[in-house]
User: Which sequence fits this backbone?
């Protein structure tokens, strides 16, 4: 009896100390992030000295070189570039569009080519417009009413979704597949309402795909600002026979070589177990890619910097990966997973930040029940930092290809309300990232990585580390 | 046994239905807020058509008239103005300041008079500077080293506090009492580092008090931008004998009459029980007062609008109160409580929004354990809306004077990271308020009011309603 009580007392003491050790380390991580972080300065350079970094561009190469240098300055155990062939799509001269109410009476509207689109003919494209709320309407409308016209996809994001990412998911098929689908009915081009919950004058680009459409049947696709979409829709209601004109000179070039940028701290006890933190280094060309995904890159680099600052040496190998080409190809993510597999590397954890540099709210996890329970048990440690969200769901596009039975995938979940105001548009710029919010995100990531490193993941087939 | 099971089954059915009714109503509130709210348009008018609304100003009067009209348009049961005498302090011509490295070699720095300060002499004030980290240093430094000098309070907000309001609380004594305290040691004036976590060029004003200092002994007080404070501090380290010059022409006028703006929906079952939602209508003069506290006013008005929109008739009387003079006197809050007491009104609940129009995170409550437990039991209803924070703490300055045993006080707690970037400065403007974030705040308030109305509060002495 006395022995049992003694044992319990010792166990309690041990558990309390363990708890308090974790609390202390996490406090140290947040303190360092809010006073000594480099993330904001790194982002300033990426955004203001380099700018938009579309795959295959000079800026993308500059970003590769800059982040590699910065990782080297951190004194990591190893920093390297992983070659990957990426698509090269170039916007060309600024796009131009107008609504023609009648010959000579026009209203200019802001548009931008969707990433991957073909150009219009040199003189532009002018045609009547047929407005739809989605791809599924095309069949009912039929080829006779679509042929030769511009299909105008105008389904807005649903404002009642609390997560704006859900609203985005409910619309983005128009942008991604709208041209391929409309092309099947003989459309001459497509105009897509920007994926933006706000009414403003900025067109939002983003990737699109022609699927199996043969090259000669591909039709040009552009995004129109939300205000432009409202004007076009209203104008069509008054007169369905108005015409729309747009001109764009974008072009797809042959693939070019680029790189994933990788740095690592070798694990002190289980170097063979690899934890990845990452974001994507490429960005759309209209803004400077501060939120998408400069923020995720510098936060990921910051995780390693914070560990150095607080003197925490991970037991497992910690890698930061700046993936290339998330936006229009995911070549970097695929290449990283392919190399990892070919080398038989044992990845146990991967965390991506690719939802903006806003106040962190928590994480979503793509994992089994046992590991989800373990991360849930860490929630109280995050409470003092206003981190409440531990949910099942997606992680990040770039780390998705790593998916495996014994790998916990996670995504940082920042506040999403402002994200699509800036996403893929010319106002995704540095001044819209708040320094503290960015740093809190990095600290939140580092704290989760610290816990995963300390306690390991629960493995289904292999021995626990 | 069978009867017991039947009873349990019925109880479960009842509880599930009750839950599902609440879920339905709260969903309806959020849907209406995100699609039909007026808050953003109201704020646009307050901010862009009226602007900064310091007590006693023409703009404050315009805000009284505008919000009264808008409440009347909502078709409430009663809308009225409650007269209250308020202080009238006027900034005068723009302030001017420089650091004089040596005669003829100067650096201009951005300052603004603190609210309530006296003017400098007409020609300005020039003196040597003594930098301190807080009021408590004055005694050790002593009169000999302070007399005739400008005391420069330079203790920054603590960046490691997760809630920026905690960081603010840790500094604001310098602004509020710095002049009164330095005056006791013969200081000629005081310069206070702006209450801002960011390094920038904007001075942040705010209220200060001379306490018991006789009129003839009052010394002028101004805030300096954080960059200005850094420059001044660095300059002093290089040469402690540099001088600082500043000039301001602010003035306190006799009190003038103003108003609290009040509207109410009369309760259908317990009209004698009053629930208040509110914010303060006055704001500082440098910006347009969008976050502080235009947002809180329009969110409070929105609560009543949302109830109308979803067709919910409160059982208890619901009042919106736009308090006058929170910023430099709290006269409106005091007057409202005084009138309520003199009329023996039975206030059961008061909720203030005065922490910015950012993404809502939850509430803090000033109440007893029984009621705190009740509101905690509602947490699951708020989970789908990413509202996690239900803590004990302060509520709001304006509703504080109502404090009573049988009254639950609450404050909306939005994300605080960006708040002090804008607080009391010229960049507290409309474009920094996000429409969705504002609307989510209003919906969150309305949902809590709905639950309080439906379930009542737990009373310590009176019969439960």
Assistant:
């Amino acid at each position: 009896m006395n022995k049992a009580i003694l044992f319990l007392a010792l166990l309690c003491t041990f558990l309390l100390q363990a708890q308090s050790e974790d609390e202390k380390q996490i406090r140290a991580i947040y303190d360092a992030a809010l006073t000594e972080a480099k993330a904001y300065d790194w982002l300033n350079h990426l955004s203001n000295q380099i700018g938009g970094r579309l795959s295959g561009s000079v800026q993308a190469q500059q970003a590769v070189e800059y982040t590699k240098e910065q990782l080297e300055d951190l004194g990591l155990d190893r920093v390297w570039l992983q070659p990957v062939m990426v698509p090269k799509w170039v916007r060309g001269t600024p796009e131009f569009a107008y609504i023609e109410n009648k010959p000579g009476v026009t209203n200019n509207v802001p548009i931008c080519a969707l990433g991957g689109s073909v150009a219009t003919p040199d003189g532009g494209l002018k045609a009547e417009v047929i407005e739809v709320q989605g791809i599924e309407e095309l069949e009912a409308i039929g080829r006779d009413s679509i042929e030769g016209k511009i299909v105008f996809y105008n389904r807005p994001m649903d404002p009642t979704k609390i997560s704006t990412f859900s609203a985005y998911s409910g619309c983005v098929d128009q942008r991604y597949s709208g041209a391929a689908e409309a092309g099947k009915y003989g459309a001459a081009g497509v105009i897509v309402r920007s994926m933006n919950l706000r009414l403003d004058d900025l067109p939002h680009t983003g990737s699109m795909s022609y699927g199996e459409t043969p090259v000669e049947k591909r039709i040009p696709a552009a995004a129109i600002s939300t205000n432009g979409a409202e004007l076009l829709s209203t104008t069509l209601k008054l007169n369905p026979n108005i015409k729309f004109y747009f001109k764009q000179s974008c072009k797809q070039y042959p693939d070019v070589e680029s790189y994933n940028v990788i740095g690592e701290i070798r694990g002190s006890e289980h170097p063979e177990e690899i934890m990845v933190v990452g974001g994507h280094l490429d960005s759309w060309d209209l803004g400077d890619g501060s939120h998408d995904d400069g923020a995720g890159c510098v936060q990921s680099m910051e995780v390693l910097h914070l560990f150095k600052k607080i003197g925490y040496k991970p037991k497992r190998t910690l890698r930061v990966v700046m993936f290339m080409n998330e936006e229009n190809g995911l070549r970097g993510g695929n290449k990283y997973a392919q190399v990892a597999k070919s080398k038989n590397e044992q990845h146990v954890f991967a965390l991506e930040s690719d939802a903006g540099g806003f106040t962190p709210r928590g994480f979503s996890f793509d994992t089994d029940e046992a590991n989800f329970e373990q991360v849930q048990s860490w929630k109280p440690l995050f409470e003092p930092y206003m981190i409440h969200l531990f949910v099942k769901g997606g992680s990040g596009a770039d780390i998705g290809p790593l998916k495996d039975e014994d790998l916990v995938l996670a995504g940082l979940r920042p506040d999403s309300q402002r994200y699509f105001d800036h996403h893929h548009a010319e106002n995704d710029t540095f001044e819209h990232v708040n320094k503290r919010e960015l740093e809190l995100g990095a600290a939140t990531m580092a704290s989760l990585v610290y816990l995963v490193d300390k306690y390991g993941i629960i493995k289904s087939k292999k021995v626990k580390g």
Notes: Chain A has two domains: 23-88+254-455, 92-249. The first strand of chain A starts at residue 78 and ends at 90.
